[in-house]
Amino acid sequence: MKQIKYISLFLLGVLLLASCTKKIQELQADPNKPTSVPPGLILGTVLSDMAGNGPAGSLGGLNSWNNVHNWNQYFCNNYDYYGNNIYSWTNGSFDPYLVLKNVVQMEREAVVKGASSVNPYEAVGRFIRAYYFYNLTSLFGDIPLAQALLGSANPTPSYTPQQQVFAYVLNQLDTANTHFATLINNKDQTLSASQDLFYQGNLTKWQKLVNAFKLRVLLQLSSKTSDATLNVATQFANIVNNPAKYPIFTSQADDMAARYDATYLQYPINPTNFGSVAQRNNMADTYVKSLTTMNDPRVFVTCEPAWALVGSDTLQPAKFQYFVGASTGLPLSIMYGNASANLYSFPNRKRYYSTFTGEPDVLVGFKEQNFNIAEGIKRGWVTGNAESYYKTGIIESMKFYGIDVTQSGFTAYFLPPGKTSTTQVTPYPVSFNFANYYAQSAVQLSSTPATAIQQIVLQKYIAMFQNSGYEAYYNWRRTGVPAFQGGSGVGNNGIIPVRWAYPVSEQAQNTANWNAAIKSQQFAADDLNQKMWLLK
Fold this sequence. Notes:
By secondary structure, the protein is mostly helical. Helix content is about 45%, strand content about 5%.
């Protein structure tokens, strides 16, 4: 009996000690350092980064009136103190990997909290992986892939060949499409609508986005149709020919678009900074000439006339000869003088400075999708009416700018010389007939595939003004359309670069793998003019 008594006392002591230890551990836990974060909260942070509004993942400034659209040759900086037109890609950034690591954490948290292996956060995560790896490989060439997301477990990840990166991207998109279909069929509603700034938890729209984006990726592989692993043409046709399995955008309401608000996220140029920044940026000749050579009325919505050219013709300044941009390659000393003399067009004051909400930044859109399908048809990847898609893309772009092609005209708004406030813009009537516009040989889709593709890419370039990230640049690099302008103003000995150099941190901290990547791609050096696999 005594032995049993001693055993009981011993067990009681162990239990008391365990209880005290647990309390001590609980007291030691830092409430300001949570060990678990709701996946919806991580999703909100990741999507904000994708929109270009977070601290990482913006790929060099892709939101409106930022670096990327300057490099797309839509506008120019004319005052060196605030910026220039140099393609300053001496070394790019791997910041998007920080966003991708958050995606990994988001996926883990969803499962920890009871989600199955196929869940909305996982499916969205696959799209985000595809989006960033597509852009990273398009900018650099070979890049770290699977090992890059292991964090401290592997601080020196190896580089994956670009062809394999594209195969991975396409596979992620295909799997995401399948998983979204399953979730939609199961009527899954677990995605946090309040944290989904693009689609508010609408899985159907996410699925459409996946396939619309895949068409974009496949188009960028247009020179790799002989690659049996990627099977570009067949994958493209599968999407277009089977909308039940691969739903795509059906209107601009499906666009992946970041929208501004008047309080928390104001449009980059707005009434409060009109007085300080309105003269710093003028329009680029590459963009303006793309419009004026085709008598395209969209120039009257996005641009102001060069008032020095208007002269005394102030009653009707909405004439194409009055709209002129500066060459991106021009030295800033010359550009600044010409801009100050009103010899160039500036961004339209009413559209871009009179509100705090501006226009949405479209990351992937319906307009682009129509042009992509039209190009795929002209390349012989899929059968269909290329002209119908092409014309729809143009009409939808004009609709985005408030031009109704069923009407005989619209009203343009410009800020006359001497006026200093966006409240002083003046209306000017503009006559416009879409049938006459489309009948122009430069606009009407050619029956010659090579010419038609050039027309399609040019119209897509116009529609991507201030949206779609690097796509305008990628398409120029792929097709030469439109002709980007070089010169001393762009740096790099006057030549438009074709890639970013790898981050300096890679050279210092991941030297062996960095050297191996340079060697395997047969680069003479890690510079801006080396041709990656995609361009060979």
